[in-house]
Each structure stands twice: as C-alpha cells, then as structure tokens.
Amino acid sequence: MFVQLIKPEFEELIASKDWVTLKEVLNDVPAVDIADLLLELDGNIAVVVFRLLKKPVAADVFAEMPSSKGIELLELFNKQQLSDVMSNLEPDEQVSILEELPGHLTQRVMNSIEREDQKQLKKLLGYPDESVGRLMTPRYVRIKSDWTIKRSMKHIRKYGETAETINVIYVVDDQEHLIDDLRITHLILADQEELVESLMDRSFEALSVYDDQEEAVRMLAKYDRVALPVIDSDGVIVGIVTADDIIDVAEEETTEDMQKMAGMDALDDYYSQTSVSGMVKKRVRWLIVLFIGQMFTVTAMSTYQSVIAGAVLLSLFIPMIISSGGNSGSQAATLIIRALATDDISASDWRKILRRELLSGLMLGAMIGVLGVIMTLTWGTLQGEVFDRGLILTAATIGLSLLGVILFGNLTGSMLPFILTKFKLDPAVTSAPFVATLVDVTGIIIYFSLAILLLKGTLL
Fold first, then answer.
1. Radius of gyration (Cα) for the chain, nearest Å?
2. Are residues 70 and 154 in the same domain?
C-alpha cells in the first residue's frame, strides 16, 4: 500500500531527473519498499538510484531484490558500487547472491570483496547446498563462563554492533566448544560482579552445519527462538541462524511445496520475474505426465463401451464419480503432506494414519454415497425416468461407486506421501492433479465393475 502511495512521486522525480529531491525522499522509505519501486525500472536508471542511497541502505535494498533483478544490477555496477554493496551485506546474504550468479560474474563479484571476507565466504560456500552452513552468519557474540557479568557486558558493547543479533549471547570454553546460550536480558538484570557460570544451566539447542535448512525452520518454530547456534562435528560453534533468515527459507519452501502440489516443477524465481519460456518449461513436463495418465482413463472407459451403450444413464454420472474420488484424494494428500512438513506426524505413523483415513474414507464415502443415491433418484424422476427396479439399482450403483471411489481416493492420497518419503523423495510431488489422475482410472474401473455386477439382467 505504501509503495502505491509514493510510486507516482517516485516516477515523477526520476522523469524530471530531480536527484536531490529523490535522495531526500528515499531517506524516509524502508529498504523493502525501495526494492519494490526499483523492480520496474530500467537497469541503468536503477543503478543511478542506487548511487543516491547510503551504503548500508543500498545493501539492504539489494538483499530484498529477486535474484534475477539483482544479477542485472550487478552486471551494471562499477567496481566501487560492487564493493560498497557486497561489503555491507551479511555473510549469509553474500552467499545467497553468489549461489545465483552466472560463472562470468562470480569472479568479478568475489574480487570486489576484501580478502579476509573472501576466505570466510569460500568456507561458507564449501557447505552443501540447502544446508544450514550456507544459511548461517559467523557474526555473533560469544563470552566465557569464568567472566564476570561486568566484563561480559563490556565485551558485548564492543563487538555487538557488528553482530547479526545480540538477543542471545553464546558461552564457549577455551576450545570454542559451545556450552550454553544466554538471553541478553539475563545478563542485563544480573549482578555485575557475578560470574557468567552462575546464570548457566548448560541446556541449549543447536543445529549442525550439515543439517537441512528445513530443520532450522522446524527447530526455530519448535523452541520459539530468535536465533539458534550452529556447531560443527566437534561441537565448536561456527555461526548462528536468525529468525529473519529462516522466514525467507520458510517462505521459499512453502511456495515450492505449493507449486509442486499444483502439478509442476518449482520456479527458480518469483512468478513476476520468470519468463514465459521458463514458466512453460516448469509446467510442461508434469502436464505431459498427467496427460499420459489420463490416457489410461480413456483406455479404461473403452473397455466398458458395451456397458455404456447398454445403460446411457450411467455415462452421465462419470464426471461426478471420478471427481469425487479425486477431490477426496487431493484433500487427504494435502493434509498428510502438510502434517509431515510440520512434524505433526512422522513416516513411522503410517499405520495409524491408514486406520484414520480408512475410517474417515468410509464415513465420507457413505455420506456422499447416500447423497448420490438421493440425487440420482430425484434427477431420474424429474427427467421422466420410470421409478422402477432399474432406476433404483442405477442409484445403488452410483451410491456404492461413490463410497468405493472416495475411500480409494482417501487411502491413495494419504499413503502416497509416506511411500515417497520412504524412498527419500519429496512428498509434495504427490500433487493434487497426480492423485486425481490416479483415482480417475481406478474410479472408472470401480464404477463399471459395480454396474456390471448390479445391473446385469436389468439394464445390461
């Protein structure tokens, strides 16, 4: 909303090249909103606007931009601008940018960073993709257990300004092993002559540098912390992960899961920053797979041509039958995928889930089945069909088919995520379209098998 309010003035100042006034205006605009304003600008104009920003603000604005726009600007920045932006970014933000850069630009950007920071960056980039090591920052404050509170506070005042956060202070031994973490409030309220050790309970949670970033999301949410320490295999603290970094990861993971559940590959960038060809590339593969899957539905229907010819009324209810199963399966898949993602359930719970979904599938199928019987009888009567044994059996066929298809959809949608997890695959690919396609084929078989069983000698 704020961006829309200042956008006309922003564009007018750029058009008139009133850079002095624009600089004053931008001083009062949050970095995230400046980033939004720059997205629609030509790269060369955006570079000019960057020159108007204070160095720390310019770095914050750059960090808020989508990677595609960031790369465009890095191509246009001169050496000094590159150095100003990169040197004012947090190490984890520098890593995030370098991960996205094309080869020809990576070395140029690295050369703009001070040698000491380059060593640190190379170390962070040495950790596996999507690991906590790539996400952490080495800028934190640590103290010793045998220090007094007074000495600790003096140390915090000296080094806290360059730290990512001082909400939590980390206690280490002489070998830099993490032995506790303390909230800054505990130190502020403690007697200045007390030792740090008197405040310690040696109870803390920590991440490994090799943990998946999703594990960091889960732990920060579970323990309600603003930051978590990161340790190596020897228990030495090497960095911290903060909540603001985790929010970005959580948003990316959620977006990725939603896109996969829609039946497509996850986009590499924001939707608005993805080209049409890139969008097509991400969507076409799964569309082809789902299209081929639907061919099995056609094949299944062709097997029952004689049944369809003998009881045309049955064919009218095919969409209702198969969509009910697909909807049930999609609901179950979505519930289980989310429950797995939030650690509400684990892969070992599949038996318990099977029982729950079997029961809920029977209940849902029975309710929708009864509704289907009533609707079939009502619709048939209104259409002038004779209320005879044939119509009653047709209604029974539809009701039982709905029960069977919804039950199958429920079980399929709930169990597929567990199967994929077992094979170390992302359960999010058990997308709603994929489950629906699978249930379509089975729904046709269930429907017409019941029709042959119940209507043989009556309508068939």
1. 30
2. no
Query: What is the pLDDT at residue 147?
Result: 96
User: Which regions of the chain are under pLDDT 50?
Assistant: none
- Domain interval for residue 42: 2-126
Specify the pLDDT at position 324. Answer: 93
CB 395 within 8 A of CB 376: yes
| 455 contact partners, CB below 8 Å, separation of at least 6 | 311, 390, 393, 394, 397
Residues 44-88 pLDDT 10s: 888 888 888 888 888 888 888 887 788 888 888 888 888 888 888
CA distances in angstroms from 171 to 58, 199, 256, listed in the order given:
34, 11, 37
Q: In Å, how far from its chain's centre is CA 428?
A: 10
Residue 336 β-bridge partners: none
Give the end-to-end CA distance of the chain in Å, rounded to a whole number: 64
User: Looking at the structure, do residues 146 and 222 belong to the same domain, yes or no?
Assistant: yes
Q: Which residues pair with 178 in a beta bridge?
A: 172
Q: Would 254 be classed as within a structural domain?
A: no
Token pair for residue 300? 């299944």
Between CA 371 and CA 19 the distance in angstroms is 68
Which residues are CB-contacts of 281 (< 8 A; sequence separation ≥ 6)? 265
Task: Please give the order of strands across the beta sheet that includes 227-231.
Answer: 207-208, 227-231, 237-242
Say if residue 207 is in the same domain as residue 86. Answer: no
Side chain identity at residue 116, one-letter code: E
The DSSP-derived string for 111-128 is HTS-HHHHHHHHHHHTSP
Task: Please answer whether residues 118 and 110 qualify as being in contact, where contact means their C-beta atoms are separated by less than 8 angstroms.
Answer: yes
- Is residue 239 situated within a structural domain? yes
Torsion of CA 394, 398, 403, 406, to 10 degrees: 160
Spacing of C-alpha 274 from chain mean position? 17
Same domain (yes/no): 122, 242: no
- Is residue 152 assigned to a domain? yes
Directed axis angle between helix 55-64 and helix 91-100, to 10°?
Answer: 50
Which residues in 288-299 are b (16+ Cβ under 10 Å) and which e?
eeeeebeeebee
In sequence order, the 6+-apart residues with CB closer than 8 A to the CB of 41 are: 14, 49
CATH number, domain with residue 361: 1.10.357.20
Domain finish residue from 249, 280, 311 = 249
d(CA 87, CA 167): 24
Alpha-carbon distances of 271 from 39, 66, 279, 287, rounded to whole Å: 13, 10, 8, 18
Query: Which strands make up the sheet holding 178-183, listed edge to edge?
Result: 142-144, 168-172, 178-183
One domain for residues 233 and 275? no
